[in-house]
Amino acid sequence: MQLNRFTDLALRVLMYLTHRDREQAVTISEIAERFAISRNHLVKVVHFMGQQGWLLTSRGKGGGLALAQPPEHYQLGGIIRILEGNTALIDCATPPCALRQDCRLKSALDVGLQAFFTVLDGYTLRDIVASPTGEAIIRLHRQQKPFPLPDNATEG
Q: Would you say 69 and 125 are in contact if contact means Cβ atoms under 8 Å apart?
Protein backbone atom coordinates (compact mmCIF):
# COMPACT_ATOMS: atom_id res chain seq x y z
CA MET A 1 0.00 0.00 0.00
CA GLN A 2 1.23 3.48 -0.81
CA LEU A 3 -0.29 6.73 0.44
CA ASN A 4 -1.28 9.17 -2.28
CA ARG A 5 0.65 12.40 -2.86
CA PHE A 6 -2.15 14.51 -1.36
CA THR A 7 -1.89 12.58 1.94
CA ASP A 8 1.90 12.83 1.90
CA LEU A 9 1.78 16.61 1.49
CA ALA A 10 -0.90 17.02 4.15
CA LEU A 11 1.17 15.09 6.67
CA ARG A 12 4.26 17.19 5.85
CA VAL A 13 2.25 20.39 6.40
CA LEU A 14 0.95 19.18 9.76
CA MET A 15 4.44 18.18 10.84
CA TYR A 16 5.97 21.48 9.72
CA LEU A 17 3.35 23.45 11.63
CA THR A 18 4.16 21.77 14.95
CA HIS A 19 7.17 24.08 15.40
CA ARG A 20 5.93 27.39 16.86
CA ASP A 21 8.78 29.45 18.30
CA ARG A 22 8.79 32.38 15.90
CA GLU A 23 6.83 35.55 15.35
CA GLN A 24 6.17 35.34 11.60
CA ALA A 25 3.33 33.23 10.30
CA VAL A 26 4.11 30.12 8.26
CA THR A 27 3.01 30.55 4.65
CA ILE A 28 2.14 28.14 1.87
CA SER A 29 5.03 29.51 -0.18
CA GLU A 30 7.46 28.82 2.66
CA ILE A 31 6.31 25.21 3.03
CA ALA A 32 6.38 24.68 -0.74
CA GLU A 33 9.93 26.03 -0.85
CA ARG A 34 11.19 24.03 2.13
CA PHE A 35 9.83 20.73 0.78
CA ALA A 36 10.51 21.57 -2.90
CA ILE A 37 6.90 20.96 -3.89
CA SER A 38 4.37 22.73 -6.09
CA ARG A 39 2.77 25.72 -4.40
CA ASN A 40 -0.37 25.28 -6.52
CA HIS A 41 -0.83 21.70 -5.39
CA LEU A 42 -0.12 22.69 -1.79
CA VAL A 43 -2.86 25.35 -1.94
CA LYS A 44 -5.40 22.57 -2.63
CA VAL A 45 -4.07 20.48 0.23
CA VAL A 46 -4.14 23.39 2.70
CA HIS A 47 -7.65 24.38 1.59
CA PHE A 48 -8.92 20.84 2.26
CA MET A 49 -7.18 20.74 5.63
CA GLY A 50 -8.75 24.07 6.57
CA GLN A 51 -12.18 22.70 5.66
CA GLN A 52 -11.55 19.72 7.94
CA GLY A 53 -10.79 22.09 10.82
CA TRP A 54 -7.21 20.89 11.10
CA LEU A 55 -5.65 24.27 10.23
CA LEU A 56 -6.28 27.90 11.00
CA THR A 57 -5.66 30.03 7.94
CA SER A 58 -5.49 33.78 7.46
CA ARG A 59 -4.93 35.69 4.25
CA GLY A 60 -3.12 38.88 3.41
CA LYS A 61 -0.03 40.55 4.79
CA GLY A 62 0.99 38.82 7.99
CA GLY A 63 -1.34 35.91 7.22
CA GLY A 64 -0.44 32.28 7.24
CA LEU A 65 -1.14 28.88 8.66
CA ALA A 66 -1.25 27.28 12.08
CA LEU A 67 -2.49 24.06 13.63
CA ALA A 68 -6.05 24.42 14.92
CA GLN A 69 -5.29 22.16 17.91
CA PRO A 70 -2.24 20.98 19.84
CA PRO A 71 -0.28 18.21 18.02
CA GLU A 72 -1.37 15.53 20.48
CA HIS A 73 -4.99 15.99 19.31
CA TYR A 74 -4.22 14.83 15.75
CA GLN A 75 -4.58 11.04 15.52
CA LEU A 76 -2.66 9.73 12.52
CA GLY A 77 -5.05 6.91 11.64
CA GLY A 78 -8.07 9.22 11.56
CA ILE A 79 -6.28 11.82 9.46
CA ILE A 80 -5.07 9.26 6.93
CA ARG A 81 -8.52 7.62 6.73
CA ILE A 82 -10.01 10.97 5.74
CA LEU A 83 -7.23 11.89 3.33
CA GLU A 84 -7.20 8.50 1.63
CA GLY A 85 -10.98 8.18 1.57
CA ASN A 86 -10.85 4.93 3.57
CA THR A 87 -11.32 2.88 0.40
CA ALA A 88 -10.80 -0.84 -0.02
CA LEU A 89 -7.46 -2.04 -1.36
CA ILE A 90 -9.15 -3.94 -4.18
CA ASP A 91 -12.52 -3.77 -5.91
CA CYS A 92 -13.74 -7.23 -6.92
CA ALA A 93 -16.74 -5.80 -8.77
CA THR A 94 -14.96 -3.57 -11.30
CA PRO A 95 -13.98 -5.27 -13.46
CA PRO A 96 -15.94 -8.28 -12.22
CA CYS A 97 -13.60 -10.96 -10.90
CA ALA A 98 -14.34 -14.58 -11.81
CA LEU A 99 -13.19 -15.62 -8.31
CA ARG A 100 -15.38 -13.11 -6.46
CA GLN A 101 -17.86 -15.64 -5.05
CA ASP A 102 -15.24 -18.02 -3.62
CA CYS A 103 -12.21 -15.82 -2.95
CA ARG A 104 -10.77 -14.91 0.43
CA LEU A 105 -8.27 -12.34 -0.85
CA LYS A 106 -10.51 -9.29 -0.36
CA SER A 107 -11.39 -10.22 3.22
CA ALA A 108 -7.71 -10.80 4.06
CA LEU A 109 -6.79 -7.41 2.57
CA ASP A 110 -9.65 -5.73 4.44
CA VAL A 111 -8.38 -7.19 7.73
CA GLY A 112 -4.84 -6.04 6.89
CA LEU A 113 -6.02 -2.53 6.06
CA GLN A 114 -7.96 -2.32 9.33
CA ALA A 115 -4.84 -3.46 11.21
CA PHE A 116 -2.82 -0.76 9.41
CA PHE A 117 -5.23 1.96 10.58
CA THR A 118 -5.46 0.50 14.08
CA VAL A 119 -1.69 0.78 14.46
CA LEU A 120 -1.73 4.37 13.13
CA ASP A 121 -4.53 5.23 15.58
CA GLY A 122 -1.93 4.68 18.31
CA TYR A 123 0.16 7.61 17.04
CA THR A 124 -0.48 11.33 17.21
CA LEU A 125 1.15 14.20 15.39
CA ARG A 126 3.11 14.86 18.61
CA ASP A 127 4.52 11.31 18.46
CA ILE A 128 5.78 11.58 14.90
CA VAL A 129 7.55 14.90 15.44
CA ALA A 130 9.55 13.56 18.38
CA SER A 131 13.33 13.49 18.07
CA PRO A 132 15.01 13.41 15.58
CA THR A 133 12.12 14.58 13.36
CA GLY A 134 11.46 17.66 15.51
CA GLU A 135 15.03 18.84 15.13
CA ALA A 136 14.83 18.37 11.35
CA ILE A 137 11.67 20.50 11.27
CA ILE A 138 13.41 23.23 13.27
CA ARG A 139 16.29 23.21 10.75
CA LEU A 140 13.78 23.61 7.91
CA HIS A 141 12.18 26.58 9.68
CA ARG A 142 15.57 28.24 10.08
CA GLN A 143 16.60 27.96 6.44
CA GLN A 144 17.01 31.27 4.70
CA LYS A 145 14.76 32.06 1.77
CA PRO A 146 16.75 32.13 -1.49
CA PHE A 147 14.96 35.30 -2.61
CA PRO A 148 12.65 37.80 -0.91
CA LEU A 149 8.95 37.72 -1.73
CA PRO A 150 7.53 40.91 -3.24
CA ASP A 151 5.56 43.12 -0.84
CA ASN A 152 2.36 42.48 -2.79
CA ALA A 153 2.70 38.65 -2.74
CA THR A 154 -0.40 36.84 -1.58
CA GLU A 155 0.21 34.39 1.25
CA GLY A 156 -1.87 32.13 3.44
A: no
Residues 72-105 have pLDDT tens digits of 999 999 999 999 986 888 888 888 999 988 899 9
Please list the residues that pair with 56 across neighbouring strands: 66
CA 120 distance to own-chain centroid: 14
What's the farthest any 2 CA atoms get from each other in the chain?
A: 65
What is the C-alpha to C-alpha distance for residues 53 and 79, in angstroms, rounded to an integer? Answer: 11
Q: How far apart are CA 133 and CA 126, in angstroms?
A: 10
User: Would you say the pTM of this structure is higher than 0.90?
Assistant: no
Of 118, 121, 120, 138, nearest to 129 (Cα)?
A: 138
For 27, counting Cβ atoms within 10 Å of its Cβ (0-12 exposed, 13-18 middle, 19+ buried), the class is buried
